What does this fold into?
Amino acid sequence: NHLKPSAFKRRCGIHRETFAQMVEVLRPHLDRTGKRGGQCKLSVEDQLLVVLEYWREYRTQFHIATTWGLSESAVCRLIRKVETLLMNSGKFRLPGKKQLYQNANLWSVLVVDVTESPIEHPQKKQRRYYSGKKKCHTLKTQVVVNQISGQIICTAFGKGQVHDFRLFKTHRIPMLPTQVCLADKGYQGIANLHPCSCIPIKKPRKGKLSKAERRHNRTLASVRVVAEHVNRKLKIFRILAERYRNRRKRFGLRV
It folds into this structure.
């Protein structure tokens, strides 16, 4: 409570207003005052702080349990319960693919980008998760961002071996012909799927780019940097930046 808004954002990874909205959703389910059954010794705000600390710092559940005076199993149950309650509330969902054509006037310029999160060495089908770009086993996250506001519209997920453009083709994005799509060099051939798209000009083999082509690439990079900023905001939470230790089936939920 004594922290300034900027310091609170650094500590928890979210704004104080978002924290208040989360508490409002969780209170009817986590506050068991006067009810039968077990009662957590932490307040609803502290229980949410435990989960945010796990996402933000990604310490082991044992370390977080000893910090808050809980058991390791209680921390595990609390994290899973809070994640499920927040998603089931519907207040923290992304707009989704359908909104791209239903509210096309709101999103005229879209930026597509892919980021990777390292994972532990898989026991089975290791080759499917190995990323030649990162030289390790990863999970890929594709984000479609509104270029003006920086809002994430929808996401898609794939294994490390899947190429960025193949991930884009597999999870077809229903963009209208009037919407502009900006991407990086990993999306060579996107014009065949969406004519109104723009990617950097690739340097010819044993050749050089002209001044106009270099100027085009710099301008495009300055416009689509919004997606890179979104990736940085996601990876403020170390659960997405460091080696992911949890089960992979809830990875998309946490993103």
Notes: The CA atoms of residues 165 and 188 lie 7 Å apart.
